[in-house]
Amino acid sequence: MTTAPHDTEAASGTATIKVVLVDDQALFRAGIRMVVSSQKDLEFVGEAGDGEEGVEVVARTRPDVVLMDIRMPVMDGIAATAAILEQADREQRRPPRILVLTTFDLDEAATRAIRGGASGFVLKDSDPEFLLAAIRTVHSGTSVIAASATRELFEHFDRRGAGSQVVPAEFGTLTTRERDIFQSAARGLSNSEIARLEFLSEATVKTHISRILAKLSLRDRVQLVVFAYEHGLTS
C-alpha cells in the first residue's frame, strides 16, 4: 500500500536537514544513523531509545525531521509525538516534521499518531533510498508520504465513518478553486496530478495548497487528509 514519495527535492539553500531518530532497538538505530549520515544534505543530530528521552533530545537539538517508532517502553511514539508538538507550540517555534516508523501498512497506532500530528509513516523495512526520499519529502512540506495510504488507514480503522458533518467555519473561507484542490489533495493526489486535473501549473497548485493550509491552520498535507476525513469533507 505504501507508495513512493513525491517531490523529493531537497530544501533550498545549503543548510542540511537535521534528523533525530527515536527507536528502542539499538541495532536499528545504528543502521539508520549510518544511512542518514552518509548523505551530504542530511545531518544526524541525535537519537533516543524511548519516547520520553526522545522528547528531551528533540528539545535540545531542534531537528527538522524526527523518525519516530510507534511501540517503545517508558513513552510510546504516539505520546512522544504529541509532547514534541505541544512543546513547540508552547515555545512558539516551528515544530519538526514527524515520520512514524511502523512494521506494517495497516497499523492502527499509526492512525492515532497521524491524528496527533505526525506527518506520515514509513515501513521500517523500506529500502534506504525510500527512507531518505521520505525524509526530504516531508521536510519540504510540498508533498505527503503515501497520502492515499493515510486515507486508507482512516477508512480501515475509524469506525465512526466519515467523521463529524459539522463543517468548520474556516472551511468557508476557501475559494471555489481552493475547495476543488482541497478535495483532490484529500483524495491523495500529488501536485502534478492536481495540476493536470485542474489545468494549472504545479507551481500554482503549490501556491493554492499553501494558502489552504494557512487558512485551515493545518501543518501539512497529511493533516489536510485528516481534516477532510474527520469533518466529512471527503468525496
From the structure above, extract its key features.
about 50% helix; alpha/beta; WalR-like; DNA-binding; Rossmann fold; Response regulator transcription factor; transcription regulation; about 240 residues; 5 strands; Tscrpt_reg_LuxR_C; Arc Repressor Mutant, subunit A; five-stranded parallel sheet
Tell me about this structure.
The protein is of the alpha/beta class and 235 residues long. It is 48% helix and 12% strand. The protein is built from 10 helices and 5 strands; from the N terminus they run E-H-E-H-E-H-E-H-E-H-H-H-H-H-H. The chain is globular and about 50 Å long. Residues 167-232 form the HTH luxR-type domain.
Topology record:
Elements: E1 17-22, H1 26-37, E2 42-48, H2 51-61, E3 65-69, H3 77-90, E4 97-102, H4 108-115, E5 120-123, H5 128-140, H6 147-157, H7 176-186, H8 191-198, H9 202-215, H10 221-230
Parallel strand pairs: 1-2, 1-3, 3-4, 4-5
Helix pairs in contact: 2-3, 3-4, 4-6, 6-10, 7-9, 7-10, 8-9
Summarize, please:
This protein is an alpha/beta fold and 235 residues long.
Strand order of the largest sheet: 2-1-3-4-5
The 3D shape can be described as globular
Architecture of the largest domain, according to CATH?
Answer: 3-Layer(aba) Sandwich
Biggest sheet layout: 5 strands, parallel
Q: Determine the number of helices (DSSP H or I, runs of at least 4 residues).
A: 10
Total number of domains: 2
H/E series:
EHEHEHEHEHHHHHH
The chain-level mean pLDDT equals: 83
Kindly provide the name of the CATH class of the largest domain.
Alpha Beta
Note the gap between the termini.
20 Å
Count every beta strand, where a strand is a DSSP E run of 2 or more residues: 5
| Helix content percent band | 40-55%
Alpha carbon gyration radius: 17 Å
Organism: Frondihabitans cladoniiphilus
Protein name: Response regulator transcription factor
Pfam families: GerE, Response_reg
InterPro entries: CheY-like_superfamily (IPR011006), NreC/VraR/RcsB-like_REC (IPR058245), Sig_transdc_resp-reg_C-effctor (IPR016032), Sig_transdc_resp-reg_receiver (IPR001789), Tscrpt_reg_LuxR_C (IPR000792), WalR-like (IPR039420)
